[in-house]
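Progress note, project year one: complex with flavin-adenine dinucleotide.
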Amino acid sequence: MTHPHAVAIVGAGWAGLAAATALRERGVAVTVFEAGRVPGGRARRVMRSDGGADATRASANAPDEMAPDAFRLPLDNGQHILLGAYTHTLALMRRLGRDDRQLLLRLPLNLQSLDGQFHLRAPRLPAPLHAAVALLSARGLRWHDRFEAVRLMTALKRAAWRTDPDATVADLLCAHDQSLHLTERLWSPLCLAALNTPVGEASAQLFAHVLRDSLAGSRANSDMLLPRADLSALWPDAATQGCDVRYGTAVRRVAVHDAGVEIDGAPFDAAIVALPPHAAVRLLRPFADPSLISALDAFTYLPIATLTLRLTTAWRLPSPMMMLIEHHERGHIGQWIFDRAHLLGRDDLGELTIVISAAQTMMDGERAEHVQRLIDQVRAQLPVGLAMPQIASTELIVEKRATFAATPGLVRPANATPWKRLALAGDWTDTGYPAVLEGAVASGQAAASIISANLP
Ligand SMILES: Cc1cc2nc3c(=O)[nH]c(=O)nc-3n(C[C@H](O)[C@H](O)[C@H](O)COP(=O)(O)OP(=O)(O)OC[C@H]3O[C@@H](n4cnc5c(N)ncnc54)[C@H](O)[C@@H]3O)c2cc1C
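Model obtained:
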């Protein structure tokens, strides 16, 4: 009897676990090394009482009055949104027996501000009509702005979604006469949500790819999918079944030979390093080509903060996901608010999450002050007649290196390396996407294909 090939995956994020699943499906014996204790990496479940590798918290500043079982609901390290265009991820979930229709709330593209001033909604029309009608009927935009937005989309489409590789999103918007109002209301929130990088620094090319796949994609592709279970439960938990997963194991050394790879001295037929660039570079520096090392060193990172507000009584927002309007001078820096009670289908719960992308300012100053200002922001933008109950407790998670900064001209390494038995995976590889879940999954699967093709 022949033994199956043994492949090591370093990192149990969405990229590493997508690779693990693809290899297991091909009969490979997979060992996963993960520094943390939970599968999912930067998209994972966190229990309310523990810390996380990169997460810091401020919590429980008021007595809790909710039903005790509400406290046991896991949180995520950050609220995530998926898109209908995440085809690799959705197909992977189905292959693992995870019912995406049950686990993800599918909503047609609907960008509605809490204060009621802005509303862009894709009607149930065939593409590309749904996007054009959404832009042309958006509340809170002047007629001129609506036409300019449609013109920008048309121009990008005509250019096959290719832009000047050195241009920022701000350059692109300026070249296409997008007004400040249109930028503040529409393009900037979309850019921050998708690239976690402000328009002045973000890559126009990556933004164009996001617009192609979302706003200009088929109607189903532009749907927003909101998790109804914690992020590890969506599929990473299921992906670990059948793998030998070594949690709490931070790999320190990788050595590559013609016939295999050693992970901290243990031999494998091949390995996939599925770590963020700052962690991958530590393992690769001793032997990799200087051009790869300098590409990895060139990545910079931006934080995302997620503030959870637990309310003293059950309460619902008008919609499960709503936009917040930013006023930086007042510390009102939240961009989106989500209704967790709605997502979890819990009528007995009042729980909201506020997302702050590119949250560098959250790294300085008093955390309690930031929290208070974000609460003030929500209260100030509630529509007339809607009063939010008292806040029982708050929990703030700041992921310091949430994503790489999606800037122009970034060199994104490929999955293949000069060594046949070693491949790279992660949202930062050359996926054509910014740092997103779909990029991580597609990258993991591409790395798995390379390794299985190179095994004898
Ligand atoms: C707060 C937040 C919000 C986000 N929102 C969205 C969103 O709405 N939509 C979206 O599509 N994307 C979003 N993203 C981005 C998305 O989470 C990432 O693109 C994706 O999770 C990256 O997966 P990965 O597998 O490439 O990397 P990671 O998830 O970083 O996986 C790497 C793994 O390697 C482990 N590790 C590190 N060093 C070692 C070592 N030496 N040995 C062993 N293990 C090690 C880490 O613990 C981690 O589990 C968000 C990210 C954050 C943080």
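The radius of gyration is 22 Å.
DSSP finds 15 helices and 21 strands in the chain.
No further modelling is planned for this target in the current period.
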